[in-house]
């Protein structure tokens, strides 16, 4: 009954926006649904005309073949290890830097923050070759270290996001902590972090998704199959002269599952963190 009354109160502009958003949602879901149905088709039905949305027969064995054709299990572990370590490290480093820029006073604070933001304007392609040569000198090539350490220590966007959110936390909470005898570290750990869970969730989802799907970094630094991540394994399904699209779509669905789970569990905090992080500069 409430929904019916709400629909009656909707104006013409509300209906227009509703229809636009509905069409946009459908356009975004269609490729995903096509990937899902293609993953259980036979190869001959992939390019059938007219297109067959409902596969007949349903070939569930495509998932088993996709998992066993290449070392998907090893790649899954590698991607999960890299994404989780980078996410945890990024939340730790960015929250500490964000707290310092938001609540602490030190010489050159505004200048250092501007310099940090300026690094976001430098294209990654500019530093790609010097970074590669540096990692070569310290024997980090064909290891996961170049994919873990630099993202943890150089995430200017994460620092900016958390600095904006922490700036909105009332100073009275810190004052209360100081009256209770808390030092800056305990204030950061016991007062600031619990109050910026939405921003941490938003940054965590961004970071996990990016490094789970990262292709260019592993392509540059890794050259043995036991070190590969999932994006490199998925690229291996594409042959020089032909591609088994059913197996490629099956592998893509397997890869997509953890990202969907992470977003679904953190959705509420993710939206709240993105909404509130820009309220106070």
Commentary on this structure:
The protein has 281 residues and is mainly α. It folds into 2 domains: 13-59, no CATH class; 70-276, MetI-like (MetI-like fold), CATH 1.10.3720. It is built from 14 helices and no strands. The protein has helices spanning 2-9, 12-38, 61-69, 72-103, 109-118, 124-137, 145-153, 156-167, 171-179, 184-195, 197-212, 216-221, 230-236, 245-276. Helix 4 packs parallel to helix 7 (145-153) and helix 13 (230-236) runs antiparallel to helix 14 (245-276). The mean pLDDT is 86.
Write down how many β-strands occur, each being a DSSP E stretch of 2 or more residues. Answer: 0
What is the end-to-end distance? 42 Å
| Estimated radius of gyration | 24 Å
Number of domains: 2
Topology as a string of helices (H) and strands (E): HHHHHHHHHHHHHH
Q: Provide the β-strand percentage band.
A: under 5%
Report the CATH superfamily of the largest domain.
Answer: MetI-like
Structural class by secondary-structure content: mainly alpha
CATH top level of the largest domain is Mainly Alpha
Protein name: Carbohydrate ABC transporter permease
Subcellular location: Cell membrane
Keywords: Cell membrane, Membrane, Transmembrane, Transmembrane helix, Transport
Domain ABC transmembrane type-1: 76-266
Descriptive keywords:
MetI-like fold, MetI-like, 14 helices, membrane, transport, 2 domains, mainly alpha
């Amino acid at each position: 009954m409430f929904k019916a009354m709400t629909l009656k109160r909707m104006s013409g502009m509300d209906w227009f926006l509703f229809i636009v958003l509905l069409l946009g949602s459908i356009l975004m879901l269609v490729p995903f649904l096509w990937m899902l149905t293609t993953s259980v088709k036979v190869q001959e039905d992939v390019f059938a005309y007219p297109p067959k949305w409902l596969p007949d027969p349903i070939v569930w064995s495509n998932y088993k073949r996709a998992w066993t054709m290449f070392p998907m299990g090893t790649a899954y572990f590698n991607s999960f290890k890299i994404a989780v370590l980078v996410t945890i490290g990024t939340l730790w480093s960015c929250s500490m830097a964000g707290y310092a820029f938001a609540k602490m006073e030190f010489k050159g604070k505004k200048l250092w923050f501007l310099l940090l933001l300026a690094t976001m304007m430098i294209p990654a392609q500019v530093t790609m070759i010097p970074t590669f040569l540096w990692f070569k000198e310290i024997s980090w090539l064909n290891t996961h270290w170049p994919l873990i350490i630099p993202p943890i220590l150089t995430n200017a966007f994460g620092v900016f996001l958390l600095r904006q959110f922490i700036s909105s936390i009332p100073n009275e909470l810190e004052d209360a902590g100081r009256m209770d005898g808390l030092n800056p570290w305990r204030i950061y750990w016991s007062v600031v972090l619990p109050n910026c869970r939405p921003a941490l969730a938003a940054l965590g989802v961004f970071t996990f998704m990016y490094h789970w799907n990262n292709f260019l970094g592993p392509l540059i630094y890794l050259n043995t199959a036991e070190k590969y991540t999932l994006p490199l394994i998925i690229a291996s399904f594409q042959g020089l002269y032909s591609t088994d699209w059913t197996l490629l779509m099956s592998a893509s669905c397997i890869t997509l599952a953890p990202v969907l789970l992470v977003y679904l569990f953190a959705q509420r905090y993710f939206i709240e963190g993105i909404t509130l992080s820009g309220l106070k500069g």
